[in-house]
């Protein structure tokens, strides 16, 4: 019928869903699933599916428009498209039976047929019947969608028979099947298509399903569709299949088995669920709500699909789970943060292991709550637990919830904290123990790599305990400490050697020679050698120090903020400001004073008597003085009063002055003690600056009767006390007076008080009334060393504590003014306090009347700086030396302090200076009076000082006088070519050209007079002594000079001053070997080593010259140079050479010199530097030097810059700094005769070369024949054994062993100690390996005969020329057997030792070749003066090298070694005469990179090594 309809609307079908219905008795507790099936098909969305549909209704609901008094429900229609694309509309009717909720019987309806009959009806009619949605709709139809059944009637086109295949609810399946069978019979009568829907297949009972299928198979065209309304499986399929059966045009229905359909459906749900969960996971804030998120996601296809399949409820549950997970994750992270922060909190609150080690966690919590920092680490919440409060959202509050500490995790953290403290304590202890271990290892030097040390600590317990990182950290810290200490000590050493640097000019650059000199002197110091591995840093420190010496400022001061200039300026700024402020308040109204408050101090009633006398002379306490009336307020106080200090100063009485009256020695002494108490009180308490500024006046009372004989004594004592106290003294006027006090005395005393008050006002007056700086009577400079261990206020306290101290002129931040009574007048003294480095410019450029030189008796550098500064001060300027220490007891308890104080006092005695000491623990020595005598001395010499200054200024302006601080040329250093041989003496000298006709004229600095030494002996003072600073400043080296006939010259021209100074340096030497016609010994009290010039006869006299000249050297140009008594006589006239007659004839006029020429201490100290600069080189260096000198180069080694041992000055000038053998000197004199007259002396010829004597003490061991030092039982000298054992035990790996020279003092000390005790332990002496090696070499060098006999030298040389190696070695072996047995044993012993040294060549860089270079001169004792010998030196060296390399072959019957490298010497154990056991190679750390260190280091030109 529908097919014939030509209208375009889609076909419409009505499907009736039927199945078991009725009362509970009929159908059981639940239905067969008809309603759920209809619900899922009509409204498939999960939110529109209702799993519960009741058939028990009230009468009202049954009569409502939805049920409409019918036993069927209209579910609505569904539009559906088939596979062929044809759409249709399916109306769904559910046939059921509603039960009355009152009677539980079916409701009565218009159709009274039983369900089986009624369900099979094909036509249904119910007017205005509404579509059914859910049970809740009944009675509330207006709240739901209202849709009527079309036209109130429907024709059923097919039936869907539902059979419940689940377990059922109190229902038997057989009864259901029986009911279904009857129902099917009725349905089949309608001839309509029927499909069986097996419902609730998700709870299917298999045999029920099989019975249904069997039931359907017995029927024709009856199809079974397995469905599940809950999971929406095959619901649409069963309706679609029924439609296909109703529409014959459609294909045969395709039935899908339940399991396959279920899998498909579940896969669809799972996919949708995954997509929805991913969508939900985009929400990261656990505070988000479902409403907000769903509104945001409602248009998203994944969201809609999931909602349709699973429903909003499930979606919300999924979202809620996600939010809960976010919250729990946040709580977990916060908890983790709290747990991680808990150790830090415990470290803060419970860091003391001793306090908590035995506490339980609960006890520890109580302890923490009492800590003041508890609130900063923890928070106590009102509500708990913390993870359910809003505290979890306070991300900025890092405090830990206290209730979290009750968890097991927190307790575990506490236990770990305690264990960590225990282990950390142990670790720290072990680190400190390891640190102490490192400190005990003496050979660890600054800059030494960790790899070189690790092998010595590998067995240490602490090293094994700590980690590798900790050990490196401890070593790095140890290195930092020792490096810092070494650098500090190096810097201190530089200050101690200040004389080396402060002879240099400012704003200059040191020359290469000067740097070599500095290195030569410093290289002897252990503090210099301590930085051997940090040579760049050492050089940087040295250059920085020199840079500071040349450019000294307080900004660049090496003491930093401890610079004396900075501290002085700070102290003066604070002290003088406070002092002046107090005075200004006190004397603000003192300019027009009309009332005087007087405090009268006396003993035994004297004070009251003076007060009565003053009142007698007054009218109503008003006193007329100099035309003005003053009101007097007198307060007499007995000196014995216990209330003296309290009565002196009150708020109502502030005295302007104090009259101190006395009439006996006892009362004067008592008065002095009282004044000292008052001032000490003011100084210590400083409760009021007034007390320190109080004016005192001493008044001598008139004597009567027999007492008057003591008047001169009292007058003298009173004047002395007044001078000490810096106060006026009022004497008894001349004449006879009946009263104790005279009116003139009182007026004089009152005038003194008024003057003092006015003076105090003037000093601090804001009006600029201070005298101009140029009006100061005396200018004193106080110098102190930066970094000295005393406070600045200690050395300034004598001035600042004085009532007469005030600020200097504006801009003078480092000066103060003193008003002191010196002699009979008050003098203004300007005190400028400077560091020594700032004082140099003052010493050179400004007028200074006196110097106060302060040094610390605890610091050698302080004394060194004082000596360097004082040496250049003119000896006309008075000097006060001040030693600073803690107390007088230091002098007796500390030898170092005693030595420095004694040295200071000795220098002061030598230069006639004042010396005093300041003690930080003493108050007396801080008083100004300690400098009173010095100020008096300065005042006495003021005129002479100023005259000398003006004279020097005039000479400076005309360039005819030496500078106060001499300048030195700092031009570029030139390389000069010296003569290549003795015969070629005409080469250009390293000076400016000199004409042929030149006479030596003195430089201005050379003119000086005779001085008296300490014993009164007269001796000349040279401006250029042996170690003169002129020479050091010029840094010139004279060429070798060949003597030529002395020929007088005319037309004398001025000589270059550089040459003059250098030659005078040679003249200053002590000519010990120079023959003399008139012997002139040095003074008895002056040692010959002091190098004062000795007058000698001229060797060759020529007309026109005086007889008594000191020395007559010649220069290389045959020019005669003569010096007479350090003053050269100019025969051609003075004006021609820039000198006036007045200057040249000033024999009786005293020219200012410098203190270094007045003090033997200062002079000899500077001289010692010169000697150490040119000390002997080591053996290997000596040979290299000799070869170099033969080529004409003078400075081939660290020898005397004016003299080498080979080529000496031809004029007979000797260098006492070099100790040489007398026979050698005579030999040289014979080989190089001078063309001058000389005494003939017999010369003893010898075939052997005698070495210079190295010892300056007598020894019964060293220098003895080898046979006297050994026995058959002990064939090796004990000293040799000790040295070798020490070296092999501690220093085989020492770099440069036997090449690097040890400290000469240490070498001598080793031999001296051994002389006294042969059992001495070298390890206990704390000496270096190089010092022991040097002492060992010195032992062999001191032997009367060399270890390798002279008699075999020629044989050794001849054998060494054999070309065949094997033959040569066998011949050498035969020669060795010819040694004396004693020599053989010792030679074998020392060669074996050297072989062992060479085995470590990778570490010590001492190969057999290097060792032979160092040792062959010592073992073979060559004669370097023999020209023939010089051609065979290389052969000598190769002989010793061969012995070292082939040690095993020569002495232990081993095989010949072919490899050029050193090999181990392993003698057979059966050898009975073996002296040294074979040595197992040491397991040493790897050496430094070979490219960084050469195998043979070149000689260091600067003397660093």
The largest pleated sheet is described as: 7 strands, mixed
Radius of gyration: 60 Å
Q: Can you count the beta strands?
A: 29
Number of helices: 53
Which secondary structure elements does this structure contain, and how are they paired or packed?
Blueprint: E1 12-19, H1 24-27, H2 34-42, E2 56-57, H3 59-63, E3 72-81, E4 87-95, E5 99-100, H4 115-119, E6 123-125, E7 153-155, E8 158-164, H5 173-188, E9 194-199, H6 206-217, E10 223-226, H7 235-246, H8 258-280, H9 290-297, H10 301-310, H11 312-349, H12 353-356, H13 361-369, H14 374-377, E11 378-379, E12 400-401, H15 408-440, H16 454-457, H17 461-465, H18 468-496, H19 512-522, H20 526-529, H21 535-550, H22 564-586, E13 595-602, H23 606-616, E14 622-625, E15 628-638, H24 644-648, E16 657-662, H25 665-685, H26 689-692, E17 695-700, H27 711-725, E18 729-730, H28 743-764, E19 778-784, H29 792-800, E20 805-807, E21 815-822, E22 825-835, H30 836-845, E23 850-856, H31 860-871, E24 879-885, H32 889-893, H33 895-910, E25 914-919, H34 932-940, H35 942-957, E26 998-999, E27 1010-1012, E28 1018-1020, H36 1029-1034, E29 1053-1054, H37 1057-1067, H38 1141-1144, H39 1160-1173, H40 1179-1190, H41 1222-1231, H42 1278-1290, H43 1304-1316, H44 1322-1325, H45 1329-1341, H46 1353-1360, H47 1365-1376, H48 1381-1399, H49 1401-1404, H50 1408-1420, H51 1427-1430, ...
Parallel strand pairs: 1-4, 1-8, 2-5, 8-9, 9-10, 11-12, 13-15, 13-16, 16-17, 17-18, 19-22, 19-23, 23-24, 24-25, 26-29
Antiparallel strand pairs: 3-4, 6-7, 14-15, 20-21, 21-22, 27-28
């Amino acid at each position: 019928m529908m097919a014939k309809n030509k209208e375009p609307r889609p076909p419409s079908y009505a499907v009736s869903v039927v199945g078991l219905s009725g009362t509970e008795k009929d159908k059981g507790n639940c239905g067969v699933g008809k309603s759920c099936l209809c619900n899922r098909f009509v409204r498939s969305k999960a939110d529109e599916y209702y799993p519960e549909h009741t058939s028990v209704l009230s009468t009202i609901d049954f009569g409502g428009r939805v049920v409409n008094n019918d036993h069927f429900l209209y579910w609505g229609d569904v539009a559906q498209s088939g596979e062929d694309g044809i759409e249709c509309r399916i109306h769904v009717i559910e046939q059921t039976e509603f039960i009355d909720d009152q009677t539980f019987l079916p409701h009565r309806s218009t159709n009274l047929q039983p369900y089986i009959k009624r369900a099979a009806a094909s036509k249904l009619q119910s007017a205005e019947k509404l579509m059914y949605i859910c049970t809740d709709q009944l009675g509330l139809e207006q709240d739901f969608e209202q849709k009527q059944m079309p036209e109130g009637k429907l024709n059923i086109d097919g039936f869907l028979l539902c059979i419940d295949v689940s377990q059922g609810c109190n229902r038997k399946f057989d009864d259901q099947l029986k009911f279904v069978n009857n129902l099917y019979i009725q349905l089949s009568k309608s001839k309509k298509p029927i499909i069986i829907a097996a419902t609730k297949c998700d709870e299917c009972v298999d045999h029920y399903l099989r019975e249904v299928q069997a039931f359907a198979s017995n029927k024709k065209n009856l199809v079974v569709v397995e469905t599940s309304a809950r999971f929406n499986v095959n619901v649409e399929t069963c309706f679609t299949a029924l439609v296909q059966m109703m529409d014959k045009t459609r294909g045969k229905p395709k039935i899908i088995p339940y399991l396959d359909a279920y899998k498909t459906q579940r896969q669809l749900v799972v996919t949708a669920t995954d997509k929805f969960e991913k969508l939900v996971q985009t929400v990261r804030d656990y505070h988000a709500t479902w409403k907000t998120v769903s509104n945001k996601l409602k248009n998203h296809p994944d969201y809609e699909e999931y909602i349709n399949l699973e429903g909003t409820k499930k979606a919300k549950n999924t979202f809620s789970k996600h939010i809960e997970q976010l919250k729990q994750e946040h709580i977990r992270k916060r908890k983790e943060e709290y747990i991680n922060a808990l150790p830090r909190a415990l470290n803060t609150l419970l860091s003391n292991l001793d306090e908590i080690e035995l506490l339980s966690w609960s006890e520890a919590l109580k302890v923490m709550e009492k800590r003041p920092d508890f609130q900063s680490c923890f928070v106590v919440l009102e509500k708990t637990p913390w993870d359910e409060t809003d505290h979890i959202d306070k991300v900025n509050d890092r405090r830990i919830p206290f209730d979290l500490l009750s968890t097991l995790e927190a307790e575990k953290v506490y236990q770990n904290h305690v264990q960590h403290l225990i282990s950390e304590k142990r670790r720290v202890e072990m680190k400190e123990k390891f640190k102490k271990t490192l400190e005990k290892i003496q050979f660890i030097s600054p800059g030494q790599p960790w790899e070189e040390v690790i092998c010595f600590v590998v067995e240490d317990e602490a090293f094994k305990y700590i980690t590798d990182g900790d050990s490196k950290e401890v070593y790095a810290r140890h290195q930092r400490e020792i490096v810092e200490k070494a650098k500090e000590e190096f810097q201190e050493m530089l200050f101690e050697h200040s004389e080396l640097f402060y002879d240099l000019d400012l704003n200059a650059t040191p020359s290469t020679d000067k740097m070599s000199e500095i290195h030569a002197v410093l290289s002897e110091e252990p503090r210099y050698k301590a930085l051997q591995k940090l040579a760049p840093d050492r050089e940087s420190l040295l250059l920085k120090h020199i840079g500071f010496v040349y450019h000294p400022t307080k900004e660049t001061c090496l003491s930093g903020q401890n610079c004396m200039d900075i501290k002085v300026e700070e102290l003066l700024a604070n002290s003088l400001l406070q002092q002046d402020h107090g005075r200004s308040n006190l004397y603000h109204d003192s300019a027009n004073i009309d009332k005087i408050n007087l405090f009268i101090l006396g003993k035994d009633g004297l004070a009251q008597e003076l007060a009565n006398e003053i009142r007698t002379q007054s009218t109503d306490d008003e006193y007329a003085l100099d035309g003005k009336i003053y009101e007097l307020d007198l307060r007499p106080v007995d000196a014995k009063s216990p209330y003296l200090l309290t009565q002196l100063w009150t708020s109502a009485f502030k005295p302007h002055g104090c009259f101190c009256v006395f009439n006996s020695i006892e009362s004067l002494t008592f008065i002095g003690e009282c004044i000292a108490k008052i001032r000490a009180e003011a100084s210590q308490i400083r409760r009021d600056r007034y007390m320190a500024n109080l004016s005192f006046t001493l008044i001598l009372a008139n004597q009567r009767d027999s007492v008057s004989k003591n008047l001169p004594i009292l007058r003298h004592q009173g004047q002395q006390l007044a001078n000490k106290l810096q106060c006026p003294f009022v004497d008894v006027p001349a004449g006879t007076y009946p009263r104790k006090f005279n009116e003139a005395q009182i007026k004089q005393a009152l005038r003194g008080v008024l003057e003092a008050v006015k003076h105090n006002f003037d000093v601090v007056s804001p009006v600029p009334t201070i005298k101009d700086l140029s009006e100061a009577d005396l200018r004193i400079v106080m110098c102190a060393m930066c970094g000295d261990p005393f406070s600045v206020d200690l050395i300034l306290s004598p001035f600042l504590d004085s009532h007469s101290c005030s600020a200097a002129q504006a801009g003078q931040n480092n000066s103060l003014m003193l008003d002191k009574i010196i002699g009979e007048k008050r003098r203004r003294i300007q005190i400028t306090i400077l560091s020594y480095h700032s004082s140099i410019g003052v010493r050179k450029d400004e007028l200074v009347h006196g110097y106060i030189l302060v040094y610390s008796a605890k610091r050698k550098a302080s004394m060194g700086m004082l000596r360097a500064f004082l040496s250049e001060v003119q000896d006309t300027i008075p000097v006060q030396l001040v030693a600073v220490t803690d107390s007088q007891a230091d002098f007796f308890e500390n030898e170092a302090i005693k030595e420095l104080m004694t040295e200071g006092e000795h220098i002061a005695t030598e230069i006639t200076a004042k010396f005093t000491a300041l003690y930080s623990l003493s108050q007396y020595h801080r008083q100004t009076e300690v400098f009173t005598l010095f100020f008096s001395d300065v005042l006495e010499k003021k005129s002479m000082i100023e005259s000398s200054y003006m004279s020097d200024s005039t000479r400076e302006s005309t360039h005819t006088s030496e500078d106060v601080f001499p300048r030195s040329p700092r031009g570029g250093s030139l390389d000069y070519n010296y003569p290549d041989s003795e015969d070629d003496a005409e080469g250009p000298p390293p000076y400016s050209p000199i004409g042929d006709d030149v006479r030596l004229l003195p430089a201005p600095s050379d003119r000086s007079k005779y001085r008296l030494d300490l014993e009164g002996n007269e001796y000349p003072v040279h401006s250029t002594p042996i170690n003169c600073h002129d020479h050091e400043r010029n840094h010139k080296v004279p060429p070798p000079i060949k003597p030529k006939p002395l020929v007088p010259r005319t037309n004398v021209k001025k000589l270059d001053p550089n040459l003059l100074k250098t030659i005078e340096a040679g003249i200053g030497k002590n000519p010990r070997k120079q023959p003399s016609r008139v012997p002139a010994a040095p003074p008895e009290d002056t040692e010959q080593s002091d190098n004062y010039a000795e007058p000698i006869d001229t060797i060759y006299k020529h007309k026109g010259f005086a007889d008594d000249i000191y020395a007559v050297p010649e220069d290389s140009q045959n020019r005669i140079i003569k010096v007479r008594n350090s003053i050269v006589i100019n025969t051609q006239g003075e004006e021609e050479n820039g000198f006036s007659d007045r200057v040249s004839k000033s024999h009786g006029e005293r020219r200012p010199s410098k203190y270094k020429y007045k003090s033997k201490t200062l002079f000899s100290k500077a001289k010692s530097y010169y000697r150490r600069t040119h000390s002997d080189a080591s053996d290997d260096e000596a040979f290299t030097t000799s070869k170099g000198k033969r080529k004409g180069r003078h400075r081939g080694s660290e020898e005397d810059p004016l003299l080498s041992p080979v080529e000496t000055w031809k004029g007979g000038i000797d260098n006492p700094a070099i100790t040489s053998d007398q026979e050698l000197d005579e030999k040289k004199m014979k080989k190089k005769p001078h063309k001058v007259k000389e005494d003939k002396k017999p010369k003893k010829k010898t075939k052997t070369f005698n070495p210079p004597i190295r010892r300056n003490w007598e020894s019964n061991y060293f220098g003895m024949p080898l046979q006297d030092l050994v026995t058959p039982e002990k064939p090796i000298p004990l000293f040799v054994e000790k040295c070798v054992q020490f070296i092999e035990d501690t220093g085989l790996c020492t770099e440069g062993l036997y090449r690097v020279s040890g400290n000469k003092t240490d070498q001598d000390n080793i031999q001296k100690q051994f002389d006294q005790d042969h059992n001495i332990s070298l390890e206990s002496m704390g000496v270096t390996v190089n010092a022991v090696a040097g002492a060992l070499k010195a032992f062999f060098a001191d032997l009367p005969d060399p270890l390798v006999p002279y008699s075999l030298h020629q044989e050794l040389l001849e054998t060494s020329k054999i070309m065949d190696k094997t033959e040569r070695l066998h011949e050498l072996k035969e020669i060795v057997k010819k040694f004396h047995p004693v020599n053989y044993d010792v030679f074998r012993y020392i060669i074996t030792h050297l072989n062992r040294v060479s085995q470590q060549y990778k570490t010590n860089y001492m190969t057999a070749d290097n060792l032979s270079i160092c040792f062959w001169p010592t073992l073979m004792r060559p004669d370097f003066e023999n020209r023939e010998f010089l051609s065979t030196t290389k052969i000598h060296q190769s002989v010793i090298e061969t012995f070292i390399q082939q040690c095993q072959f020569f002495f232990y019957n081993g095989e010949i070694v072919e490899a050029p490298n050193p090999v181990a010497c392993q003698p057979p154990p059966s050898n009975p005469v073996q002296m040294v056991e074979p040595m197992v190679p040491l397991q040493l750390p790897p050496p430094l990179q070979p490219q960084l260190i050469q195998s043979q280091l070149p000689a260091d030109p600067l003397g660093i090594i």
